[in-house]
TrEMBL record, chain A:
Gene3D superfamilies membership: MetI-like
Record protein name field: Carbohydrate ABC transporter permease
InterPro entries membership: MetI-like, MetI-like_sf
Single GO cellular component term: plasma membrane
Entry's family note: Belongs to the binding-protein-dependent transport system permease family.
Alphabetic keyword roster: Cell membrane, Membrane, Transmembrane, Transmembrane helix, Transport
Transmembrane segments: 35-55, 97-123, 135-158, 170-189, 210-235, 269-290
Start and end residues of each ABC transmembrane type-1 domain: 98-290
Main location: membrane
Entry-linked SUPFAM superfamilies: MetI-like
Membrane topology: Multi-pass membrane protein
Subcellular location: Cell membrane
GO biological process assignments: transmembrane transport
From TrEMBL, chain B:
Organism: Phytoactinopolyspora halotolerans
This protein's name: Sugar ABC transporter permease
Transmembrane segments: 6-28, 40-60, 98-118, 130-150, 189-211, 232-257, 290-312
CDD domains: TM_PBP2 (cd06261)
CC annotations in GO: plasma membrane
Membrane-related topology note: Multi-pass membrane protein
GO BP terms, alphabetized: transmembrane transport
Record's keyword annotation contains Transmembrane helix: yes
Every ABC transmembrane type-1 domain range: 94-311
Amino acid sequence: MNAVTTTPQAHGGPESTAVVSSAARARKRLSSPGASTAAIIIAVLWTLPTFGLLLSSFRPEDDIKGNGWWNWFTDPELTFESYREVLFGSQTELSTYVVNSIAITVPSVVIPVTLALLAAYAFAWMRFPFRDSLFVAMFALQIVPIQIALVPLLQIFVDVGLNGTFWPLWIAHSTFALPLAIYLLHNFMRDVPAELVEAARVDGAGHVKIFGTIMLPLIMPAIAAFCVFQFLWVWNDLLVALTFAGSTSDVAPLTARIAELVGTRGTEWHLLSAGAFVSMVIPVIVFLGLQRFFVRGLLAGSVKG
Amino acid sequence: MDTAEKLVQMLIAVALFGGVMGFILLVVGRVRGRTDLVQSLAFVAPAVLLLAVGLLYPAARTAYQSFFDRTTEAFVGLDNYSALFERDDLLIVLRNTLLWVLVAPVTATLIGLVYAVLVDRSRFEAFAKALIFLPMAISLVGASVIWRFMYEYRPDQQNIEQIGLINQFLVWLGFEPQQFMLNAPLNTFLLIAILIWVQAGFAMTVLSAAIKGIPQDIVEAGRIDGLYGVKLFRYVTVPSIRPALIVVLTTISIATLKVFDIVRTMTGGQFETSIVANEFYTQSLVRGNYGLGAALAMVLFVMVVPIVIYNVRQLRKADIR
């Protein structure tokens, strides 16, 4: 499953030149002007849109609405006013939604990862009736698009009176994460040498002990990888948020609020630009800090559609 | 609720969950049966229960409701499904979905592949990759705001300057600025461009790893046969990473079929830009037409299934050590 992952130097960087010396070939390729130009064009195309909005978010309101961000270079003026207004202004109050996003995301990562770890351990190292068919069923659930579960699930939450709290979001995110999480973590646990587990059993360790003292430490990188994924997925989600929290309620996350702002105040670019970056700061920090794990997870196939 | 209350609620939820799970583990840790039965139940049951209630039952319920009318009271047979192929607005939805899934995966993969090859083992590789990769960290809502700004239109009048870069380019070149989001079918392609912008980084990362995994002797053999540059790429690189290419293509296809945020944020599905995933939301949760919404969810399911199965098979093949 994770063969690509274990390939050394899976992710770039200077150290990857270790993969024998085809370096010469590559340098030759890049030194050709056509190739360099193409690479630079793609890089610029991919960076410029973000840069434009980022620069705009620091321009005074009148400047943003009056002319394009490229005029900043001839009229350089920077201000944090848009951020102040979007975070604390009474019309937007994004700071509230930052808290909501955090309150939604933390349990929505902790709960499914814990449940998946336990289930994955059972599927990998325990013997019980219907184990294999249950595992296949669990695996097959990955094909169910979450859209198919949303409306009846909402009905359940309304019926039991949980609507309007964080619980629907926590439960929905946890549920939807499970099939992929169990499958991936199972694969990593399967890779732990059986001798290690057997030795512990001979020493009289039960499953709970083996799980806690052998399994968890060994697959920490896999857990970290999945946590990063789940974090980004939940933080950036819009569909689950809109379904179970709406866009203005007490529990709506940043994404839902910003999508709402686009709809109702689509020309207030000083608010939209600053708001968009407020919503991006935390995932980008997490992403850059834990990029190594993210790439590992990506190569192991942890992509949720 | 104020901030402190929310965070306390969050901590209580985590603590409650941790407490319950810890207690279960503590109890079953003391059980010493001859088989794993009791312990395995404690390990598996919570996840299975959650999936049964939160995913399996609702999915079955949606399938059932797709045969009922908008209020899910009267049985209407296949009417919801036939509406998809008869109503003009819904036919456009299907056409757009097809456009998305035909254009986005191939383009994103192609760009990711070309870029991966171009920067492979260059001096700035890590930095160059990070530039393309970063859009993956931001939400599709954030990406939509970024691109809305690119596509922004200002009327072509005296004293009014364009603030969207693309329209400014048109003006610089002597053309009239365009209301990009209103012009079908161009607007659909402009929305697809946003997804390509986000997904190219994924394609690049996976394909770059695959390229680095090509055994050196294969490359040398190609070289001895006189293959260089584009030919080496075409006859050695691409065939060697074929499984990875298919995985990337199918993964992006699945993501494309389910994409909702971009259409919802950019146009709300107006101006002939809606796709199945967005129309599902509009019908079920905005218009309250549960029957049709359920049918749309089922259509999404049916479209995704074959791609997922193919994807998983290729994933296994690609990863044989």
